[in-house]
Amino acid sequence: MLVLGIESSCDETGAALVKDGRYILSNSVASQIEIHNRYGGVVPEVASRQQLATIIPVLEIALEQAGCSWEKIDAVAATYGPGLAGSLLIGLTVGKTLALAHNLPFLGVNHLEAHIYANWLRKEGALTSSSAHWSYQEGDPIFPLVCLIVSGAHSELVFVPEHGHYQLLGRTRDDAAGEAFDKVARILGLGYPGGPAIQKAAQQAEEELLWQQKPLTQARNSYRLPRAWLRGCYDFSFSGLKTAMLHLAEGATENNNGKQVSHYTRMGAQAAQQGMPNVALLASSFQEAIVDVLAVKTRLAAQEYGVKQVVLAGGVAANTSLRARLEQELSPLHIHLSFPPVSFCTDNAAMIASAAFFHLSRGEQHGLDLDVQPGLSLPFIKR
Ligand code: KG4
Ligand code: ZN
């Protein structure tokens, strides 16, 4: 089954052709990062206008890259939530219109579910695969599994016993992990999007220590930052960490002005004397604090639910420290960790087509009266 997927939930415009929910024939993405970088974050009105300007060229590229005609396409799918209403509306309207014009089935896709299905995507085998069945194929993640969804707007730990069944184990009580990365990068003057910028700064600090033949932990622990463990549950909280970072950044300014020097600032100053830029050390310590909580809670959930597979999903799944630390937590327990390639962690349309396939092949589809649902969550089952 060949599905055309369309993604427009925030500031990325995507179109992709994916066969059998796994094999990517084409994947075209237009990013608005440079536009929003000027404002330090996504401006919804600007994002939706930009979606409108790019959706048709992006679609044309995806169709051309795949080299396939409309006769070969079996269904059209587009994100209908969660996301920014104005942005969602563009992709959903284009998707429904194309389905109507070409007399094809249409499916609206939950963006969060699609992030999970990015773990089913692969580049090889597209031309040899013939099965359109939704059941297991070699290379697929194995159920039951625990999924950590960490994006710009969501941080959720979910138990997934089988396709389409989601049991919420925990979620953030305040900021999402990606949101914390973005806000802290802004505090540190590192720009938007914050995740990749903080990762890069942290790597600089760690490379510098490697050069000096010092342990990496020195960078990761150079600032003593709070971790909200919220023991006894799988919920997260990142707002305290963000506030601590704000105080540290302010503390650094006070130090510069010769005012009272805080504990943190003193430590940072010591590090600076050793030739280490404060911002890089702050970035490294902040990243370590987030990764610590995410990795330990995910490992505990995987142990409690007795799964043999953990999957990572969402933009923050691109983080190399998170991946490495989770691997470290899970491999002694013989729990397999999978995560999409970096370009499929952040928003893309291939994951939309993948998630759509697993619904379509179970006979599901939506009517053309489907509206956007900006606040949509995963369809959780009760415990
Ligand atoms: O999934 P996504 O593309 O969009 C949403 O659905 O929200 O996630 C975007 C988020 C941003 O907050 C961005 O800073 C974060 O993912 N991100 C990262 C990395 N790459 C992207 N966070 C940490 N490390 C990264 N390498
Ligand atoms: Zn996303």
Describe this protein's structure.
The structure is a single chain. By secondary structure, this protein is α/β, with parallel strands linked by helices. It has 13 helices and ten strands. The protein has two domains: 2-121 and 341-360, ATPase, nucleotide binding domain (Nucleotidyltransferase, domain 5, 2-Layer Sandwich); 170-338, Nucleotidyltransferase, domain 5 (2-Layer Sandwich), CATH 3.30.420.40. The strands form two sheets. It has a five-stranded mixed sheet with strand order 3-2-1-4-5, sandwiched between helices. The protein has a five-stranded mixed sheet with strand order 8-7-6-9-10, with helices on both faces. The longest helix is centred in the last third of the chain and has 27 residues, at 278-304. Bound molecules: 5'-O-[(R)-(carboxyoxy)(hydroxy)phosphoryl]adenosine and zinc ion. 5'-O-[(R)-(carboxyoxy)(hydroxy)phosphoryl]adenosine (KG4) binds at residues 10, 151-153, 178, 181-182, 193-196, 199, 314-316, 318-319, 346-347.
Write the layout of secondary structure elements.
Layout lengths: L1 E6 L4 E8 L3 E9 L1 H5 L6 H23 L8 E7 L3 H17 L4 E5 H7 L27 E6 L4 E6 L6 E5 L5 H11 L6 H18 L5 H4 L18 H18 L6 H11 L4 H27 L4 E5 L6 H11 L5 E3 L3 H4 L4 H11 L23
Parallel strand pairs: 1-4, 4-5, 6-9, 9-10
Antiparallel strand pairs: 1-2, 2-3, 6-7, 7-8
Helix pairs in contact: 2-3, 4-13, 5-6, 5-8, 5-10, 6-10, 8-9, 10-11
5'-O-[(R)-(carboxyoxy)(hydroxy)phosphoryl]adenosine binds next to α5 and α6.
